[in-house]
C-alpha cells in the first residue's frame, strides 16, 4: 500500500506523494550555472503522474510530466574538495550515467526515463548540463592534468606529514 510507505500530501483538492529517492550522501552532480561556472546541481522536481483510486491504477501510470534540476551554491565553502578523478572519471556526476552502471531499469517499470542519472528528458532551470563532448574533453589525461594531479597529491601528502609532527 502506497500510504504505508510514503505520506500523501494535499494541496487543495490535489494529492501527491513526496519521495526522497534521489537524496544521496556522496558528492553532488555537477552542471553549468547561469554564470557559466561549474556548480553542484540537485533535483528541483521530478513529477510523475499516476491515476490511482482506491490504491488501484486506473489507466495512466508513471507518466513523466517534468524533470527539472537546479544549480545551487552550497551554504558552506571550503578549500578541500574531492580528488581529480572524483569528477574527471565519473560520468554519473554529470548525469551521463553509462548503461552498464545503471542499477534501476526505469523503462521496465513503465517510466519515461532511462535513468534519473541521465540527462535524457530532463532540464536545468538556471543553467545547463555538461554535454558528452565537454565531459570527454575534460576527462582527457593531458600533460596539464597530470601535473595538476601530482601537485594535488603532493599537497595532500605534505598536509598529512606536517600534521603528524609534534
Spans where pLDDT lies below 50 across 5 or more residues: none
The helix count comes to: 4
Judged by helices, strands and strand pairing, the structural class is: alpha+beta
Gross morphology is elongated
Keywords:
single chain; 5-stranded mixed sheet; elongated; about 170 residues; alpha+beta; two-stranded antiparallel ribbon
Question: In brief, what are we looking at here?
Answer:
This protein has 166 residues and is an alpha+beta fold. Helices cover 22% and strands 25% of the residues.
Describe the structure.
The chain is of the alpha+beta class. 22% of the residues lie in helices and 25% in strands. The protein contains 4 helices and 9 strands; from the N terminus they run αβββββββαββαα. It has helices spanning 2-5, 85-88, 132-138, 143-164; strands at 8-11, 14-17, 30-33, 38-49, 52-53, 56-57, 63-71, 123-124, 127-128. The strands form 3 sheets. Strands 8-7-4-3-9 form a 5-stranded mixed β-sheet, with no helix packed on it. A two-stranded antiparallel ribbon has the order 1-2. A two-stranded antiparallel sheet has the order 5-6. Strand 5 and strand 6 form a beta hairpin. It is elongated and about 65 Å long.
Give the helices and strands, then pairings.
Blueprint: H1 2-5, E1 8-11, E2 14-17, E3 30-33, E4 38-49, E5 52-53, E6 56-57, E7 63-71, H2 85-88, E8 123-124, E9 127-128, H3 132-138, H4 143-164
Parallel strand pairs: 7-8
Antiparallel strand pairs: 1-2, 3-4, 3-9, 4-7, 5-6
Amino acid at each position: 500500500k502506497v500510504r504505508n510507505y510514503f505520506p500523501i500530501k494535499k494541496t487543495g483538492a490535489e494529492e501527491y506523494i513526496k519521495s526522497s529517492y534521489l537524496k544521496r550522501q556522496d558528492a553532488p552532480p555537477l552542471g553549468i550555472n547561469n554564470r557559466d561556472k561549474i556548480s553542484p546541481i540537485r533535483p528541483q522536481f521530478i513529477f510523475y503522474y499516476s491515476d490511482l483510486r482506491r490504491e488501484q491504477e486506473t489507466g495512466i501510470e508513471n507518466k513523466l510530466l517534468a524533470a527539472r534540476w537546479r544549480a545551487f551554491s552550497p551554504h558552506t565553502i571550503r578549500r578541500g574538495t574531492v580528488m581529480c578523478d572524483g569528477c574527471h572519471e565519473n560520468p554519473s556526476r554529470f548525469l551521463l550515467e553509462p548503461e552498464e552502471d545503471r542499477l534501476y531499469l526505469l523503462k521496465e517499470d513503465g517510466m519515461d526515463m532511462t535513468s534519473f542519472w541521465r540527462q535524457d528528458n530532463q532540464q536545468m532551470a538556471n543553467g545547463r548540463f555538461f554535454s558528452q563532448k565537454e565531459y570527454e574533453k575534460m576527462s582527457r589525461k593531458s600533460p596539464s592534468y597530470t601535473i595538476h594531479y601530482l601537485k594535488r597529491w603532493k599537497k595532500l601528502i605534505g598536509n598529512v606529514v606536517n600534521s603528524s609532527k609534534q
